[in-house]
Amino acid sequence: MKSRILGFIIMMFCGGALTLMTFGQRGGPPPQLPRYLPSDKKFDPHDLAGVWTRNSSRLGYGGGGTCPDCGDRGFSNDVPPFTPLGQKMFDANKPSYGRNLGTPDAAAHPEEHIGRRRAVPPSNGTDPYQYCNPMGVTRALIYPDPIEFIVQKGRIYQHFMWGYGIRPIYTDGRKLPDEPDQPRWWGYSVGHWEGDTFVVDSTGHDERTWVDHFGYPHSESMRLQERYRRTNYNTLELNWTITDPKAYTRPWVGQTKRFHLITGEDIKTVDDFTGLLEDICAPADEVDQFDRRIRDQLGPGPGGR
Fold first, then answer.
1. Is 252 helix (H, G, I), strand (E, B) or coil?
2. Engineered SS bond to 198: which of 50, 81, 219, 228, CB 3.0-4.6 Å?
3. DSSP, residue by residue, 39-79
4. Residue 240 located in a structural domain
5. Which domain range does residue 47 map to?
6. Which residues partner with 66 through β-bridges?
7. Could you count the other beta carbons within 10 Å of the beta carbon of residue 18?
8. How far is CA 133 from CA 28, 93, 107, 240, in A?
9. Count of domains in the chain?
10. How distant, in Å, are the alpha carbons of 199, 272, 274, 286 from that of 60?
11. Residues of the chain whose pLDDT is less than 50?
12. Per-residue pLDDT tens for 39-72?
């Protein structure tokens, strides 16, 4: 491991998980001066390829918040009433993100749904990402770190830097399964074009994932529709809706989110190797824990361990 270090490393608490983030500028995080590509260049509205970010920092990643026009880290403040099951699931989730529960700050903002005013930091064991499980589609799209859209024949991949997850969106004309037998962390997703809007429908989302950092739940019956529209060279707009009759009494329309195009050349290691960073939540002691908790309890097999 090289001894020279550019910038510094901090431990960031991201919705219940500790994440290492590096900044390339000595003396502190990059200043809040977004350096996005120009918006007046000619573009193909059907070309979504590239690295997009909602981050407000100069380089488009590494700490900071969301850019001024990008929306916040929640799906939407206009939360539909819960069903009895949805309320039970909501009450069981204890997020670390948001205004702290029972504080004057929380009381001073009654215009915000209670889900945004009930944070109990640090993480207390209910956040699936605390255990390095994938965060799911909606939460990954909200987090303000870069997402690379990789366009191939018959599919588009979304490569998330946060968690280093890959989500395939199939554009080959296939239909979604009506009731998937096996839910997935990233669900089942298909996409098609309606004019200049790329429409993505998905289902089969594992209900252990949260809708956003505030711990809003969903059931395995959730259907998500995303509508992406490239409004200029460097802006990608997302409008989306959750339909989940098991958890919510009506469809939940999300806040409009925006992403801005960056070259990706600013995202690099200290060795100047460019590309999305491997920002993985990885339990380094997973093998040892498996041995201790499971394999060691069973004893050696016929041929020894």
1. strand
2. 228
3. SSS---TT---EEEE-B-STTS-SS--B-TTS--SSS-S-P
4. yes
5. 31-287
6. 55
7. 12
8. 30, 15, 32, 24
9. 1
10. 25, 16, 14, 32
11. 1-32, 301-305
12. 899 999 999 999 999 999 988 998 778 999 999 9
